[in-house]
Amino acid sequence: MFVHGRLRDAGPGNCLGYTGKSRGRACSADRGDGLCNAVAGPSVVRGFTLIEVLLATALLAAGLALAFATLRAATATASRGEAMAARNERMRAVEGFLRARLAATRPVAFGLEADSGLAQRFVGEEERMRFVADLPDYLGRGGPYLHELAVVRDGDALRLTVALAVVQGGAVIEDPQARPPELLADGLGAVRFRYRALDADSRPGPWQPQWRAPEALPLQVEITLRDVDGRAWPPLVVALPLAGSYGAAPGALQ
């Protein structure tokens, strides 16, 4: 039942109790009522401005660029570390092989000098070396083998190779199925072999680029390697234990 245009049970401030123009006046009079405000009209929601959006986009782009730069640097560091580890492993393997073979050099003749007729037990040049050493069973059939270290040119770089041949009765046994020389190291910029004997005072003499006593063994052998990029390998100096009994006489090479 209506009384003067409003509901009988409508309490003060209740906009639902008003009709017509009285509804608008009631809402204006009582603005503290949330229901009245909702009926009066929707509230305004504030969004992001264009400057805020651009700033957020710029910060996101900077963060992504920093993340990609960090990832690229980490990848490059890991690649350099792997390359360095591989190079060190290769150097250790090559130096270990050369050291073991040279230290096992035996005074076994493998040929005769054409001029003097003396037995050849060690031939040493600046880029070539020939000597006899026992070959381990895991590398072949075992026994004395002629080891020939040689420097081979490969374009602008050098390669260090080793060829093996069986030695029997003071001569090299030719094998028609001999394997080609094995590659020890490539990408080299310089390779040098040097040899040392005792001087007249029975002390280690100067290093020489050529061994001039093929019937005897040198006291020490030095192998120097350097990569194409200029990085030097650790110098390899090997003493031949049997040179004390089959080495050149003191002062013979002076």
User: Can you give the helix content as a percent range?
Assistant: 25-40%
- Based on CA atoms alone, the radius of gyration comes out at 46 Å
Average pLDDT, all residues: 81
Number of helices: 4
Poorly predicted tracts of residues: 1-40
| Main pleated-sheet profile | 9 strands, antiparallel
Distance between the termini: 139 Å
Count every beta strand, where a strand is a DSSP E run of 2 or more residues: 13
What is the count of distinct domains? 2
Description:
By secondary structure, the chain is α+β, with helices and mostly antiparallel strands. The protein has two domains: 2-40, no CATH class; 99-246, no CATH class. It contains four helices and 13 strands. The chain has helices at residues 21-29, 34-40, 50-103, 243-246, and strands spanning 2-3, 6-7, 105-106, 111-112, 119-120, 122-124, 128-134, 144-154, 157-168, 171-172, 182-196, 220-227, 236-239. It is elongated and about 115 Å long. The termini are far apart. The model is unreliable at 1-40 (pLDDT under 50). This is Prepilin-type N-terminal cleavage/methylation domain-containing protein. InterPro entries: N_methyl_site. Keywords: Membrane, Transmembrane, Transmembrane helix.
Main attributes of the structure:
254 residues, single chain, transmembrane helix, two-stranded antiparallel sheet, Prepilin-type N-terminal cleavage/methylation domain-containing protein, 28% strand, transmembrane, 29% helix, membrane
